[in-house]
Design a protein that fits this description.
CATH topology: Rossmann fold
Shape: globular
CATH class: Alpha Beta
CATH superfamily: Lumazine/riboflavin synthase
Number of strands: 4
Bound molecules: ligand DLZ
Length: 167
């Protein structure tokens, strides 16, 4: 999948004021350098969108992202930014971890009506992941994109809910 056509530049030039959006980050712990880049990118988006010091919950691996995202949603968070990177190895494990994390996060979004920023990199090589991690020299900044997507979606959900509350 290509990163071309991303709305990130638009978000960066016209960021929303999300200072009162309840948002948290859940981040896996495999592949340190890539994860550091993703988390830093998510924090850059938070700053642009005026969110101060969001909580960050670390989990062991990407497989554990959905259950923590669900717990955060149950506690009233409106937006959860899920960050992880899975690198293909020589066994089918890659597919199982990727699909469990992806399906699980999607389920949390739909079951809880919460905005999930999908910042899970699923790559063949570490080089591909580094190129998307928002580090110096990376072509893409998926941590920023995921956080911006979660905040924009949470704002849209708020507007929809408020509108129908008053009608
Ligand atoms: C087991 C495993 C493997 C092989 N690779 C990754 C990976 O590239 N990225 C990642 O986030 N997690 C990986 N894991 C760990 C699983 O996500 C999970 O944490 C363990 O299976 C324990 O439940």
């Amino acid at each position: 999948m290509s990163g071309e056509g991303s709305p990130t530049t638009h978000y960066q030039s016209q960021p929303l004021d999300c200072h009162d959006v309840r948002v948290a980050v859940v981040a896996a712990s495999w592949h340190d350098q890539v994860m550091d880049g993703l988390i830093a990118g998510a924090m850059r988006a938070m700053t642009d969108f005026k969110v101060e010091a969001p909580g960050v919950v670390r989990v062991p691996g990407s497989f554990e992202l959905p259950v923590v995202a669900a717990a955060l949603a149950e506690k009233g968070y409106e937006a959860v930014v899920a960050l992880g990177v899975v690198i293909r190895g020589g066994t089918p494990h890659f597919e199982y971890v990727c699909s469990s994390a992806t399906d699980g996060l999607n389920r949390v979004a739909l079951d809880h009506g919460v905005a999930i920023g999908f910042g899970l990199l699923t790559c063949d090589t570490e080089e591909q992941a580094l190129d998307r991690a928002g580090l110096e020299g990376s072509r893409e900044d998926k941590g920023y994109e995921a956080a911006a997507a979660a905040l924009v979606t949470a704002t849209a959900l708020r507007r929809i809910r408020r509108r129908y509350e008053t009608e």
